[in-house]
Amino acid sequence: QVQLVESGGGQVQAGGSLRLSCAASGSIFSISEMGWYRQAAGKQRDLVASIRKSSSTKYADSLKGRFLISRDNAKNTVYLQMNSLKPEDTAVYYCNAVRWSWDTGRTDYWGRGTQVTVSS
Questions:
Q1: What is the DSSP letter of 43?
Q2: Given this model, what pLDDT does residue 73 score?
Q3: Which residue from 13, 17, 9 is spatially nearest to 87, judged by alpha carbons?
Q4: Which of 88, 95, 119 is CA-nearest to residue 109?
Q5: 89 Cβ partners below 8 Å, 6+ apart?
Q6: Long-range contacts, 105-110 (Cβ 8 Å, 24+)
Q7: Which segments of the chain does DSSP mark as H helices, in order?
Q8: Do the Cβ atoms of 36 and 96 come closer than 8 Å?
Q9: What pLDDT does 71 receive?
Q10: Is there a contact between 66 and 39 (Cβ–Cβ < 8 Å)?
Q11: Residues 81, 12, 73: CA angle, nearest 5 degrees
């Protein structure tokens, strides 16, 4: 099992910045990828950014240049730096971890989410 704990959400004015953190614990040796998803009210949960053990990254096209994902392997923590925030970035942000195994294939783990609210 993998446990994920997010922190860093809150309320900010448009144009401001926030940094989210996600600390992983448990069977972290088996995690191949971690990332952030977000879900606005009444909408589906969408990928924001992800980062692999190799440090290769993937971003939602609309967020490239404003958001930056990084990881500290020593701390088993992934960060999401969000800059130039817009009201449309308001959502619950969820940390995600992916584990692959030969017998069960892909398993996704989720944090409880942290609210980000951007006011105009």
A1: S
A2: 87
A3: 13
A4: 95
A5: 38, 82, 116, 118
A6: 109/1, 109/2, 109/3, 109/4, 110/4
A7: none
A8: yes
A9: 94
A10: no
A11: 20
Q: Length of the chain in residues, anyone? A: 120
Extract the tokens encoding 4: 């994920």
| Residue labelled with tokens 């730096």 | 81
How would you write the pLDDT of the chain (120 residues) with one tens digit per residue? 899 999 999 999 999 999 999 999 988 888 999 999 999 999 999 999 999 988 899 999 999 899 999 999 889 999 999 999 999 999 999 999 999 888 989 999 999 999 999 999
Q: Report how far residue 79's alpha carbon sits from residue 71's, in angstroms, rounded to the nearest whole number.
A: 6
The pLDDT assigned to 64 comes to 86
Residue 52 to residues 15, 65, 84, 93, Cα–Cα distance (Å): 29, 19, 25, 19
> What does the block give as tokens for 17?
């910045």
Q: Which residue has the tokens 């923590």?
A: 77
